[in-house]
Write a structure and sequence with these properties.
Length: 209
Amino acid sequence: MDSQNPSLDTLRDIRRIMERSSRFISLSGLSGLSAGIFALAGAYVAHSWIKEFNVDTQGTERISDLKYKLILLALAVLIVALASSFYFTWNKARKNNLPIWDHTSKKLLINLIIPLATGGLFIIGLLYHNDWHFVAPAALVFYGLALVNASKYTLTDIRYVGLLEIILGIINIFYPAYSLYFWATGFGLLHIVYGLIMWWKYDKVGAEQ
């Protein structure tokens, strides 16, 4: 058994080198966790605004004003979530002495941006035609497609998260009245669960090793 240990260690080292050269492995579980928490916080605020609007018998706030506030809220959540995700990913890469920006991360970013940009333009088109019913489903589906598309350049677990996002978005199409709950589940709860699993599987265990 002892004579096999050096060989096993060598195989593990080779595997790590191959993973680092072909996949971006610095994604932190805390990135998903923080993004999910911010998404849930945003969903809570949005729910409060919608509830206040529905009970406002005086009609002091127009529906267009509410939609404008919800758009700004969504953008704010997106910016904060991206900033926190970048910080935790950068921090993990720094601790592991890995580059945050290399050939693999460029491929990851390109494959992530193409579906996201397409989805963003599609959602802008929906907003332009004042069709709000399918904004949340479109966001979930295109985000899921982006994760699936980018998963081949990072941790494989991302693919399963993307598939779940797509499934949620498709179901949401048939139940548009519950879009906020689907949005909170996809961008909030799913990210938190994924973040905890990834933290335990890669961050915590990796740090102990």
